[in-house]
Amino acid sequence: GVEVGPQPQGVARADVLDKMRKIVKHGLDFVQLFNEGKEFPPCTIEVFKIMEKVDYPRNKNGEIIAIIHPKLQDQDWQPLKNGDPLFLTLDGKVIPYQGNCTVYPTFINEAAYYEKKQAFVKTEKIKLTAKHLRLPVS
């Protein structure tokens, strides 16, 4: 599957549709070249590995008591370091990120995840290395 976004629910965006078309085309081009016997050299790519889902701060009744800090809003895939603003309480107090490593949040403040008790997902940036790839000769 391919998920391209962000895109609000019920909204059709030309720029997001164009990105999706390009991704699908690259995938199909790869399959065609692989099936034709093209050899792909080894490569390394940076990816984001999910660490954990993070909920909003809540009171004892389960009600949200803080919102995403404005400096974090719309900063998907950007580094979040220890001490950076994370949440803003309804009375204006900043709740900073407290972590022992830099993380890369994504799905920040997505409406579809409120019911799932998810403010964002913490990811870590890692490198994956692939060996050369070629269709075996029959």
TrEMBL record:
<dbReference type="InterPro" id="IPR007036">
    <property type="entry name" value="Aste_AspA_hybrid_dom"/>
</dbReference>
<feature type="domain" description="AstE/AspA barrel-sandwich hybrid">
    <location>
        <begin position="44"/>
        <end position="125"/>
    </location>
</feature>
<dbReference type="InterPro" id="IPR050178">
    <property type="entry name" value="AspA/AstE_fam"/>
</dbReference>
<protein>
    <submittedName>
        <fullName>ACY2 Aspartoacylase</fullName>
    </submittedName>
</protein>
<dbReference type="Pfam" id="PF04952">
    <property type="entry name" value="AstE_AspA_hybrid"/>
</dbReference>
<dbReference type="GO" id="GO:0005829">
    <property type="term" value="C:cytosol"/>
</dbReference>
<dbReference type="GO" id="GO:0016811">
    <property type="term" value="F:hydrolase activity, acting on carbon-nitrogen (but not peptide) bonds, in linear amides"/>
</dbReference>
